[in-house]
Amino acid sequence: MTETKLIRGRLLSFKRAPLSLADSDSYTYEHDGALLVSDGRIAAAGDYAAVRQVAPEGTPEIDHRPHLILPGFIDCHMHFPQMQVIASYAADLLEWLNTYTFPEECRFVESDHAARIATHFYDELLRHGTTTAVAYCSVHKTSADAFFAEALKRGMCMVGGKVMMDRNAPQGLLDTPQMGYDETRAVIKEWHGKGRNHVAITPRFAITSTPEQMSAAQALAREFPDLFIQTHLSENQEEIRYTCELYPEATDYTDIYARYGLLGQKTLLGHAIHLSEREADALSEAGAVAVHCPTSNLFLGSGLFPLKALMRREKPVRVAVATDIGGGSSYSMLRTLDEAYKIQQLLGERLNPLESFYLMTRGNAEALGMQADIGTLEVGSTADVVVLDAAPTPAMKLRMETIRTLPEELFLLQTMGDDRAIIETYVAGAAMKPK
Ligand SMILES: [Zn+2]
Q: pLDDT tens, 99-112?
């Protein structure tokens, strides 16, 4: 028998990017709404009374009123092997990588360690209302195996890749161009399309890949054109300088990836903070996505990402938002968008709360081309859903007393909220938030 249930509460789902705070056509909001979930998918959505009418007799009901029900959050860039790297004290990116991150990632050659961290990884995602994430594993195939096995067990839609890196890191973290190619192929064969798993071709960044390995990544991209490609771009000035020194024939950092055929609509570029106009044009023309990781950018002092400026260019750059665990300092997409807001403030820009909630749901789904399945509460989508309480703490409860509008409530959630604001996280209709 297929499991059917009604999830009742205040529904919010975006139809497109909001143009302003007053743009109420960009979303649907039902004050007393319900989702009818059948076989893991949303079978009906809208006004409670109407949805109740089409629900089969005896359908059980979970009443989340007065809480908000949104599509589960999506995190477009993070590192599965860095859970024990978060909060490491370093001057900048390269010191942070060499001192803490690379030694920690070496441990993922052990499948027991990888499996243990995978359990914690998915627990934290679900605790924070995140139902889909795009992650880097370590260089070891064992880490990708653990990552995908746990995603499959929980029925989550996940994107991940075995990192390819063959220089400028400790011996225990290096593959070779051939090994990187072969093992990525093996991961694709074993895991891509199994459950809701998606494999990404994952050269870590140009500093840790030789030209030969970049060619191997290019060969994979040609062989598997439907796969995501993820890497890092223009995070900090010292990194940019060193990268360009390693690839003197390239016009700039972006051009390195372009030369190896790695810039396309399925390419996710972490950070992309310090782009020239030429590079932003190149991203725009390729349809590649710049993934903004605000807590990481502030934590490592990398720079201020011009989110709004890139979005409103004549040739706009596609953008997504992400935590970048463990350079990032929180698993929460609420905390992440709070920091994104502050970065735009420092740049003299406004990021309104409707835009923020659009970005962490439908916006990120569109960046992945997955909006037909995740990121909205539309009929036919998988029922990946988060339930939010804007008054989980005494301070938020007090502030809620004076809040009158939905955007105000969203802004409070974004500014003061964290995992305490997550009442429940549903994956394909099943309640999954760890107790
Ligand atoms: Zn990263």
A: 999 999 999 999 99
Q: Which amino acid is at 176?
A: T
Region 391-398: mean pLDDT is: 98
Ligand 1 center–CA 139 separation, angstroms: 14
Distance 27 CA to ligand 1 centre (A): 31
Give Cα separations from 320 to 20, 105, 230, 279, 335 (angstroms): 18, 25, 13, 17, 15
Are the C-beta atoms of residues 107 and 127 closer than 8 Å to each other? no
From ligand 1's centre to the CA of 227, what distance in Å? 19
Rounded to the nearest whole angstrom, what is the distance from the C-alpha of residue 79 to the centroid of ligand 1? Answer: 6
Facing residues of 401 across strands? none
Query: What is the residue-wise DSSP string for 161-220?
Result: EPEE--SSS-GGG---HHHHHHHHHHHHHHHTTSTTEEEEEEE--GGGS-HHHHHHHHHH
Distances (CA, A) of 276 to 247, 272, 289: 17, 10, 15
In this prediction, residues 167-190 reach a mean pLDDT of 97
- Give the C-alpha separation, 118 to 186, whole Å: 20
CA angle 208, 213, 216 (to 5 degrees): 145
Q: Model pTM?
A: 0.98
Residue 1 in this model has a pLDDT that exceeds 70: no
CA distance 4 to 42: 10
CA of 312 to the centre of ligand 1 (A): 25
Q: Measure the CA–CA gap between 387 and 324, rounded to whole angstroms.
A: 23
336: CA distance to ligand 1 center in Å? Answer: 14
Task: Check if the beta carbon of residue 272 is closer than 8 Å to that of residue 263.
Answer: no
Quick one: what percent of the chain has pLDDT higher than 90? 98
Do the beta carbons of residue 324 and residue 77 sit within 8 Å?
Answer: yes
Report the chain's mean pLDDT, rounded to a whole number: 97
Integer CA distances (angstroms), 264 to 199, 311, 348, 357, in order? 16, 18, 31, 26
The values of phi and psi at residue 378, to 5°, are -75, 150
- 324 CA distance to ligand 1 middle (Å): 5
Contact 266, 285 (CB under 8 A): no
For ligand 1, a single-atom ion, the residues with CB < 5 A are 270, 324
pLDDT, tens digit, 9 for 90 and up, residues 17-34: 999 999 999 999 999 999
